Give the backbone structure.
Amino acid sequence: MTVQAATVSVSNYPLFLLSEAVTEGAPSANRLLQAGEVGHHGSISPSDIKAIQESKFVVWFGEPLENNLASSLNTAPNAISLFSFDAFNRHPLRDVKGQLIANTLDPHIWLDPENAKAITRALAVIHSHANPQHKNLYQANAKKFAQRLDRAVASAQLNDQKASPYWAYHDAYQYIEKALQLQLAGSLSMDHHLAPKASQIRWLNEQRPVKQMCLVSPSVPAKGLLAKLQPVNTTVQPEDMSGSKDFVSGWSNMAQEIRNCMS
């Protein structure tokens, strides 16, 4: 008789991609939010609430990222918030001029390769508690993931020690900066749903560190906006990697496309 797999639910798309790396060869986790709904926006359905109740464990990042899940998960006895662990490299939020904002957390921790590896190790433990029959598989997969990601990071890195300046539509890429030797020279807006102020566009143009800038944006910026920032290259990079089916290849593509934007 086969053992019925216990359900583990994960909150959003990047966490699902990391979970998929761990569960390869075994049943997948259930995903609550759709691709593109990192957690700032979107709502959960009655069927999602039912899935939360029926899951052995529900893994989410936490309220700073997924405030739309907080009312359901803050008090759920089976919920595990990754932000509540004393782990992972963490950075504070930055304002549109790149200044640190005290007592804040930039929640996009998965873009840091060291964090991504740590999250898969945590997921391997959680999945093993839920489905101990697959424990060895989960552990082997987490190890294989770390090796693949290390190779991807090594191939993305340049020998040049000088950090390359870039602009962000909103500051969502801080955790990939160290691996790619990037330096934020300012953001257009604190939220990609908010149009940038004329004063901020003027400030970016006045402070531009190089003539040809690269703008990294989660969606295609308006042509009228780009006209005010010329000369500028643009690369569209959803921070939840919603265009990817695999975390490592998604991270590699993001790294390569940002590199191309800089050149």
